[in-house]
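Sequence in, structure out.
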Amino acid sequence: VLGNRVGLRAEGIELRTVASLHVERAGIFGVDFDLPADVEVTDLAVDGIALDDYRQEPAENGRSRLRVAFRDRLLGAATVRVQGRSRLQVPEDENQELALAVPLIRMRGATHLKGYVGIHVEPALDRREISRTDLTPLDATARAAIEPAGLPDAGTPLPLVYRFEHREGDIALELGLKRKAPLITARVLTTVTLEPNLSKVEPLLSYNVTFRGERYFRFRAPLGGDLPTRLKLADTSMELNGPAEEVKPEGAPDDWVPSHGIWTVRLPAPRTGRIDIQLVLKDAEEKTLGSGEQRVTPLPTFVPVQADKTTLPNTVHFVAVRRDA
């Protein structure tokens, strides 16, 4: 019985293979495995008999052979566990697909073979099946012939997305892989503090980024008054650029003038997870209120936008108003 578990991440492949051997009549002093040439065996263990040595050497058709030698003749049952890894570099461009021949370890000279293949794929990757040979899909609830060891935890769980079973044969699987574009959501909390001689506005743009890191964040804000000269970032490690004026809409009158601009915030490096961008508006003094007087203070809105300058979908806005005692 042979089981392969393969984990696909954008920057590398992890393999876990287990072979459950049952030898009758004449014994054997070792077993050979067939594997892709670019697979590096990182660890190997044997249960049920003492391991003498193992080595990986070139074989035909651009593959390699893993030779496992036992100290004594095996007659009965034993288990061989193999760990390996291989290179993988999915293109950065989310529109470019990589065709990958999934590395699978096979056992040489086995008869009455039953096999299992489980494929795990990083959530940041889109995948599609291009072709497969001698592999039969296995229902998600069906019991596998054998379960290889789990994959190492690299901080991001790898969901199990394909399950197959097989018998003897030249098993093969080819997948198409692409990086997903970053998924960005946002919420905006604008806090206004009312004081006798000014209104303090403190906008916080809170983004959440999944699938892959993002470095640039954009928002739309009014150009009126002196807002562009008063606007800064609280975090000095970030860089604020802008404003870039809105493009004149088609059919707009000749005397049209832009009322809003687009600012871009540049982070030191791409990031995922929660990213808070605290904007700072330099205080602008207003008329001090006397008893019974009132004033109207326009509240600027800060709207997260995408690279094409369209509004970021599903953005939620909150406004909190505080009064200076």
